[in-house]
Amino acid sequence: MQIDRASGSGPAITGFSPNGYKVEAGAFRGVYRALTITPDSVEEWDAPAFDTLSPESLADLLTGDPRPEFLLLGTGATMRRPAPAFVRALEARGIGVEAMDSRAAARAWAVLRGEGRWVVGALYPL
Q1: Where does the pLDDT of residue 108 fall: very low under 50, low under 70, confident under 90, or very high at 90 and above?
Q2: Distance CA 44, CA 65 (A)
Q3: Angle at 21 between CA 38 and CA 73, to 5 degrees
Q4: Is the Cβ–Cβ distance between 50 and 80 less than 8 Å?
Q5: Rounded to the nearest 5°, which phi and psi values hold at 119?
Q6: Are 39 and 24 contacting, i.e. CB atoms less than 8 angstroms apart?
Q7: How far is 112 from 24, CA to CA, in rounded Å?
Q8: Which residues of 61-79 are buried (b: 16+ CB within 10 A; e: fewer)?
Q9: pLDDT at 70 over 70
Q10: I need a labelling partner for 87 at 20 to 30 A (CA). Which of 11, 55, 72, 101 fits?
Q11: Residue 112 CB-density burial (10 A; 0-12 exposed, 13-18 middle, 19+ buried)
Q12: Which one has a higher pLDDT value, 56 or 24?
């Protein structure tokens, strides 16, 4: 699937397939099976088992400056709710959590960056 490119700066998720997410923007080019993404960077992510996801497994993503408004969490092929303790831990840091299936998260990334929002994303494999 192709995703319309948003006007926000930084890496853009421009499509996805069974192989992963297609990312483009300047030096950010490639297909990522699972990824973490910020307005300034994109990285292949060795995603932990969903049930073991913790703030520590996303420490580099969550400690940036400026602090993200929220984490866009792509939970894979289907929508799953993260553990309440995970959500509470991020909210205690002033970071919200928006969980949705990974395809929806990829599309939401484009919209949010187009609005200039300072968000971060962690997308599990499709």
Answers
A1: very high
A2: 21
A3: 50
A4: yes
A5: -120, 165
A6: no
A7: 16
A8: bbeeeeebebbbbbbbeee
A9: yes
A10: 11
A11: buried
A12: 56
Query: What distance in Å separates the CA atoms of residue 42 and residue 11, rounded to the nearest whole number?
Result: 7
Fill in the amino acid letter for 1: M
Structure confidence by residue, pLDDT tens digits, 79-102: 999 999 999 999 999 999 999 999
The per-residue pLDDT of the chain, averaged, comes to 89
Where are the extended beta strands (E) located within the chain? Answer: 12-17, 20-24, 30-32, 35-37, 42-44, 70-74, 96-100, 120-123
pTM, 2 dp: 0.89
Tell me the two tokens of residue 99: 């969980």
**pLDDT > 90: what percent of the chain?**
66
List the strands of the sheet with 120-123, edge to edge: 42-44, 35-37, 120-123, 70-74, 96-100
